[in-house]
Write a structure and sequence with these properties.
Order of helices and strands: HHHEEEEEHHHHH
Distance between the termini: 16 Å
Low-confidence stretches: none
Helix content: 40-55%
C-alpha cells in the first residue's frame, strides 16, 4: 500500500509536466480503478465508454504477439463495468487533451483511447519500460501491469464485494479462477 501510494502521488504531481506523463497517469489510474487487463485497456475505443452512465464495455483486447486487436479472451471477458466519478472526470479531461494533441499534430483524431498521433496501439514492452522507470524514480520494487489488476481486486474484496461480483468485473470464465487467485485475501 505504501509503495502504491508513493507511486501514484509521484505521478500525479508530475502529470502536468508533459503529455507522456499525463498519458501514463491516466492509463495507470484506469487500470487500478477498473481491474482491466493491459491489453483490454489498450484496445478501448471512446465508443466503449459511456461517460454519462459511468460504464466501460470490454469486448476486445490488444494482442501484443499479433500486434492486433482481437475479440475478448473468453466469452465472460465481454462485460460492462461501472467506473467511479473521479475516473469519469479524468477521462473527460483526457479525451479533450488527446483531441487537442491530435489537432496540434495535424492528424485525424483516433477513436482509440490510448492512441497517440504516431501510434494507434502501444508497444507493451515500451509501456513496461515506462512503468519500470517510474518505479526506479521513487525507489520502489518493480511490478508489472497485472499488479494493478490484482490491487484492484484486493481493494474490492477488502471493501466487501462478493467473489461472484469480482468474477464478473474481472471477466473470469469461472468462479474457481477467482477463488484460486484471491481467496487468501482477508475481508
Amino acid at each position: 500500500p505504501d509503495d502504491l501510494k508513493a507511486f501514484l502521488d509521484n505521478l500525479e504531481k508530475k502529470q502536468y509536466k508533459r503529455y507522456g506523463l499525463y498519458y501514463e497517469y491516466v492509463l495507470y489510474h484506469l487500470l487500478l480503478s477498473t481491474g482491466l487487463r493491459i491489453g483490454e485497456a489498450c484496445a478501448l475505443e471512446w465508443t466503449d465508454i459511456d461517460l454519462d452512465k459511468s460504464t466501460i464495455t470490454v469486448n476486445k483486447t490488444y494482442n501484443k504477439g499479433l500486434k492486433a486487436v482481437s475479440t475478448a479472451k473468453t466469452k465472460s471477458a465481454n462485460r460492462t463495468i461501472s467506473i467511479d466519478k473521479k475516473t469519469v472526470n479524468m477521462l473527460r479531461l483526457y479525451k479533450n487533451r488527446q483531441q487537442q494533441l491530435y489537432v496540434e499534430s495535424g492528424v485525424s483524431v483516433s477513436s482509440v483511447i490510448f492512441a497517440i498521433p504516431t501510434k494507434e496501439y502501444q508497444n507493451m514492452a515500451t509501456r513496461q519500460d515506462a512503468l519500470d522507470r517510474r518505479c526506479t524514480e521513487i525507489d520502489i520494487p518493480r511490478f508489472t501491469f497485472h499488479a494493478f489488476r490484482h490491487t484492484h481486486a484486493s481493494l474490492l474484496l477488502n471493501a466487501g464485494i462478493s467473489y461472484k461480483e469480482l468474477q464478473y468485473r474481472l471477466g473470469h470464465a469461472n468462479i474457481t479462477m477467482t477463488l484460486d487467485i484471491y481467496s487468501h485475501l482477508s475481508r
